[in-house]
Amino acid sequence: MENLKVEWITKSGRDCLKFTFFGKFTVQDAIPALEKWRQAFAERPEGKIPLIWDCLNMEDYDHEARTLWQDACKEMKDRIDTIWVLTNSLLIRMGASVISVFTSLKIKVVSSEDQVQV
């Protein structure tokens, strides 16, 4: 899973699950990342968790990968607090908007991690 890193970080005293994307996000990246995501949520079964999707180094994504990601958001909706998307890309902003519409999750798009307020 070289195009995606999944890790816990602490921001403002809260544990956040951070996904850092590199290059093109594909189905081959999405499937193992979704397993890590589910496992991370299972390890911390209490409360809602803020997500940070660092897409600053993402160049593109496959439609099918976005669909898998969107379905996972719906599946884990009750556990997700706000989703913070870090990007300067119009394409990725549009993808985040699509996910927000189809999942009714609060997604905030910012250009740097310094702007994330959990």
Can you walk me through this structure?
The mean pLDDT is 94. It contains 3 helices and 5 strands, in the order E-E-H-E-H-E-H-E. A hairpin with a 2-residue loop joins strand 1 and strand 2 (14-25). By secondary structure, the chain is an alpha/beta fold. It is globular, with a radius of gyration of 13 Å.
How do the helices and strands line up, and which of them pair or pack?
Blueprint (H helix, E strand, L loop, with lengths): L3 E8 L2 E12 L1 H17 L5 E13 L1 H13 L4 E7 L3 H14 L3 E4 L8
Parallel strand pairs: 2-3, 3-4, 4-5
Antiparallel strand pairs: 1-2
Helix pairs in contact: 1-2, 2-3
Main attributes of the structure:
118 residues; alpha/beta; five-stranded mixed β-sheet; 5 strands
Could you give a quick summary of the protein structure above?
The chain has helices spanning 27-43, 63-75, 90-103, and strands at residues 4-11, 14-25, 49-61, 80-86, 107-110. It is of the alpha/beta class and 118 residues long. Strands 1-2-3-4-5 form a 5-stranded mixed beta sheet, covered by helices on one side.
The residue-averaged pLDDT reads: 94
Strand arrangement, largest sheet? 1-2-3-4-5
Count of helical stretches: 3
General form: globular
Strand content: 35-45%
- Rg, Cα atoms, Å: 13 Å
Percentage of residues assigned to helices: 25-40%
Query: Spans of 5+ residues with little confidence (pLDDT < 50)?
Result: none
Number of strands: 5
Major β-sheet, in short? 5 strands, mixed
| Strand/helix succession | EEHEHEHE
Cα end-to-end separation: 27 Å
Structural class: alpha/beta
